[in-house]
Q: What sequence folds into this?
């Protein structure tokens, strides 16, 4: 819910509540005042009746009856009543004063009634005024308040929009609007400082990644060079050559692991930000061509079903790595004379392969350094790279198994 | 061939120097940017250049070479492996970019390819006994009969001949073959099948079997 809507709703519901109570109170107050006026008139009438002056009483009707009870004191009672008009047979509202007057032997009851018809109209008008004017007043107040809040919040919305578009990879500053409202001014100052700090840290992190790479790669390069010098020497025994070759391989794996970790760090730091249109049909065809000798070696049958052209905007080198890793995975975990099926739709890509009927847990499958005992030379990092690339490119990847068929599905 | 090595790591510089001398070239070493910029005036054929130098960026050397119009080929040999760095280096006019750690055989292959490009405008054919290769046309002839090879097999053959009489480990060959894309492990089988295919085609076309297996750990291209 928007802030404006929320405050507006609060304002309106509170207004309705208090307005209701106020109108009710106003109505009863007017009623009370009008009744007081009638009561005075009726008392006036009473005094005229008492002085036997009935003839000049124009505004009230008096009826007198005798009660067979004894009372000591005069008693008054004001009530409202409805009386049917004799000529029009309409019911009308009357104010009634009943008072009992004791005489020597009996009690006389005087009933004086006075029509309230003229004042009823007045009360209705007052009540109407009490209802309509506040409604208009509150409405105007609400609209003015809303417009003013909206104006004050414009800086805040600007900040939100700029923060939404924030990208740590972009060099441009956040440049938030200045505001005459202290809270927003402070908020924007905090965000501006944060923006600066995050970008500085990010640059430092990138430098750190580069430095780590350099610091480890150079010694590895030295080891490589020295081992190569050694293996080229004459008169080495078979044992020695095998030992050196083993060392070269281990060093290579070490540097590959290092490179893979640096690559993952770069993925995490979103170094691969620039994107372009990638045609996956073309990409898959090319990569399969590259891998052909390996596919032939394992006698794999490759089926590509292109139902449609699949294009998506992403980083080209990441797209390469993604497809290559998935295809290599499908080849490596295959069986002799097995198959690879690639199904390309306009927004999804399925790569499935035959394999052993082993169940893998999808979460573990995409984890780092998850090794398969049948492939000890594998680093176990390929699928976690696949997962990271999918994550940062907005592709959802899922793995499922149907018997001995392993299926990876990408949804764009 | 006169080669300058710009490398601040003495151990690495020494290994590369040994190797280059063993290939029959003359060689000088600069350990920092200042001496590299000074030595560059001696007109080398090729410079092997590290970028992270103690007193500055090795790209200064590339700038100087290009600004003064020297006919010197430059191979950058750096631990910086990002695409931006590579593009920057190559745009400045470097001829090749190799990231550390590297295989000596790879450096050798790049060196030879650069020599052909810079000094023979890519026209020089590679000849090894009955084999004749025209790199610019991806053409292989055995006793003057053209042989049909795939791009990878052709590349592999050039790599073997550039490193003739040297032990090439499977690891090094794998590195060479997977240089086009990021690749993590598992290339042994790929190497094996590529080499097997190349060998089959060469022998079928009447070429001697020069690719010798070295105790199952690598290969050696030799007519010895």
A:
């Amino acid at each position: 819910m928007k802030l404006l809507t929320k405050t507006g709703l609060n304002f309106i519901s509170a207004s309705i509540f208090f307005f209701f109570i106020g109108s009710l109170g106003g109505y009863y107050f007017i009623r009370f005042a009008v009744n007081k006026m009638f009561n005075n008139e009726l008392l006036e009438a009473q005094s005229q009746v008492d002085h036997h002056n009935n003839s000049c009483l124009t505004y009230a009707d008096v009826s007198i009856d005798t009660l067979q009870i004894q009372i000591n004191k005069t008693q008054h009672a004001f009530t409202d009543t409805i009386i049917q008009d004799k000529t029009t047979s309409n019911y009308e509202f009357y104010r009634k004063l009943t008072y009992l007057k004791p005489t020597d032997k009996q009690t006389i009851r005087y009933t004086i009634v006075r029509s309230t018809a003229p004042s009823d109209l007045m009360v209705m008008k007052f009540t109407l005024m009490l209802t309509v004017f506040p409604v208009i007043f509150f409405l105007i107040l609400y609209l003015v308040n809303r417009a003013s809040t909206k104006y004050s919040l414009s800086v805040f919305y600007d900040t939100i929009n700029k923060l939404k578009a924030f990208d740590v990879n972009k060099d441009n500053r956040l440049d938030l609007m200045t505001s005459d409202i202290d809270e927003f001014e402070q908020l924007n100052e905090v965000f501006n400082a944060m923006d600066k700090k995050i970008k500085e840290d990010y640059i430092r992190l990138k430098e750190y990644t580069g430095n780590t790479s350099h610091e480890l790669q150079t010694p590895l390069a030295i080891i490589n060079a020295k081992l190569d010098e050694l293996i080229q020497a004459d008169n080495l025994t078979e044992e020695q050559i095998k030992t050196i070759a083993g060392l070269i391989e281990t060093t290579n794996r070490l540097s590959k692991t290092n490179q893979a970790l640096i690559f993952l760090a770069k993925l995490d730091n979103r170094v691969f930000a620039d994107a372009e249109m990638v045609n996956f049909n073309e990409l898959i065809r090319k990569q399969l061509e590259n891998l052909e000798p390996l596919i032939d070696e394992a006698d794999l049958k490759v089926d590509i079903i292109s139902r449609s052209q699949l294009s998506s905007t992403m980083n080209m080198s990441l797209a390469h790595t993604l497809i290559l890793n998935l295809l290599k995975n499908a080849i490596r975990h295959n069986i002799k004379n097995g198959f690879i099926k690639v199904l390309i739709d306009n927004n999804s890509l399925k790569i499935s392969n035959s394999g052993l009927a082993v169940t893998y847990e999808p979460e573990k499958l995409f984890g780092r350094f998850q090794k398969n005992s049948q492939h000890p030379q594998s680093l176990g990092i390929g699928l976690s790279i696949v997962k990271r690339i999918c994550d940062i490119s907005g592709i959802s990847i899922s793995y499922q198994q149907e018997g001995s068929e392993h299926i990876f599905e990408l949804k764009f | 061939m006169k080669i300058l090595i710009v490398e601040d790591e003495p151990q690495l510089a020494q290994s590369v120097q040994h190797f280059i001398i063993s290939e029959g070239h003359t060689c000088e070493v600069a350990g920092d940017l200042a001496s590299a910029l000074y030595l560059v005036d001696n007109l080398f054929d090729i410079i092997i250049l590290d970028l992270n130098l103690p007193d500055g960026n090795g790209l200064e050397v590339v700038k100087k070479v290009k600004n003064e119009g020297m006919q010197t080929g430059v191979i950058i040999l750096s631990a910086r492996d990002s695409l931006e760095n590579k593009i920057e280096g190559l745009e400045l006019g470097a001829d090749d970019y190799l990231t550390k750690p590297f295989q000596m055989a790879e450096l050798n292959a790049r060196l030879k390819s650069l020599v052909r490009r810079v000094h023979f405008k890519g026209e020089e054919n590679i000849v090894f006994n009955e084999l004749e290769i025209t790199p610019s046309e991806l053409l292989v002839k055995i006793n003057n009969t053209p042989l049909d090879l795939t791009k990878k097999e052709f590349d592999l053959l050039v790599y073997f001949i550039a490193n003739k009489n040297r032990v090439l480990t499977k690891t090094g060959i794998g590195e060479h073959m997977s240089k086009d894309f990021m690749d993590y492990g598992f290339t042994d089988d790929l190497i094996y099948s590529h080499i097997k295919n190349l060998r089959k085609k060469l022998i079928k076309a009447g070429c001697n079997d020069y690719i010798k297996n070295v105790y199952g750990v690598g290969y050696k291209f030799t007519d010895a």
User: Anything to note?
Assistant: Chain A has three domains: 3-139, 183-268, 276-411. The two ends of chain A are 31 Å apart (CA to CA). The mean pLDDT of chain A is 83. The first helix of chain A runs from residue 3 to 50.
